[in-house]
Design a protein that fits this description.
The protein is of the alpha/beta class. The chain contains 8 helices and 7 strands, in the order αβαβαβαβαββαααβ. The protein is globular and about 60 Å long. The chain starts with a helix and ends in a 14-residue tail after the last strand.
């Protein structure tokens, strides 16, 4: 009972956090290590918010072009680029492709400055990315880059092509089967009315449809939305974690 009450409070909190003031659209920037990562894990959220009038942008750090054993990276990269554009269009998202290669995202200052400049260019209110611990190094490196880039983007002394941006209200870490170590669902969002559009979007990718990997991506994330929804008292839900220092509420009295 105590856990259920806490979950319902969190649902209310995220509803407020992602609800724009009337006539005030925000921008949500999702940053994934590979084309398809953010669509699978956060696509339902992005659809939900786009329906509410928010602008949605997805930064693909790599195409994930090394993931098809039957195609060369060049051929599969071209396929993934076309799939990403189609999937993101279905979500209602703009797409930005970073210049990095699958498995070779550099964990360096230059990559952080690149992402910081994208943040300054896009001016998001919210950033969604990978949880910091992962079995895939591209995921954990992307998370580390994003965390630092958010800070760099806010500093006037850091020179990039665009001026500083300080309007980010929060970083949200997506629920990904490869990023499970230490991930704790904290924010639950009701996406019961968004899953059909989500399915239409993610199945633009061959690897989601089952033509590349033996892992059942579509079944996993579809079932996960049911499990998260059951805990939240909704038909379907997606979850996100936040930094531990953000997990606090300051009140004048008990709610």
């Amino acid at each position: 009972m105590r856990y259920t009450i806490r979950v319902l409070i969190v649902i209310a909190a995220i509803g407020v956090a992602f609800r724009p003031a009337q006539g005030q659209a925000r921008t949500i920037l999702a940053i994934g290590a590979h084309a398809g990562d953010m669509e699978l894990t956060a696509g339902a959220l992005l659809i939900h918010q786009h329906k509410r009038g928010d602008r949605v942008v997805i930064l693909q750090m790599t195409l994930g072009e090394g993931g098809n054993p039957r195609l060369s990276p060049a051929a599969y990269g071209a396929q993934k680029r076309a799939e990403a554009l189609s999937a993101d269009s279905t979500i209602g998202a703009e797409t930005i492709f970073a210049p990095y290669k699958d498995g070779e995202i550099p964990n360096d200052d230059a990559a952080r400055r690149y992402v910081a400049d994208i943040i300054r260019q896009v001016k998001p209110a919210y950033v969604v990315t990978h949880w910091r611990k992962s079995i895939h190094k591209d995921h954990s490196i992307t998370s580390a880059i994003v965390d630092d880039a958010v800070l760099l983007a806010s500093l006037d002394g850091v020179q990039t092509a665009h001026p500083a941006h300080r309007g980010i209200r929060g970083i949200y870490y997506a629920d990904n089967w490869e990023d499970g170590e230490g991930f704790q669902p904290y924010l639950y969002l009701d996406v019961s009315d968004d899953m059909k559009q989500w399915r239409d979007a993610v199945t633009k990718y061959e690897f989601v449809r089952g033509g590349v990997s033996s892992f059942r991506y579509l079944d996993y994330y579809d079932a996960l939305s049911i499990v998260r929804g059951a805990i939240a008292g909704k038909q379907r839900a997606v979850t996100f974690d936040i930094d531990s220092f953000g997990k606090r509420r300051v009140l004048d009295a008990l709610p």
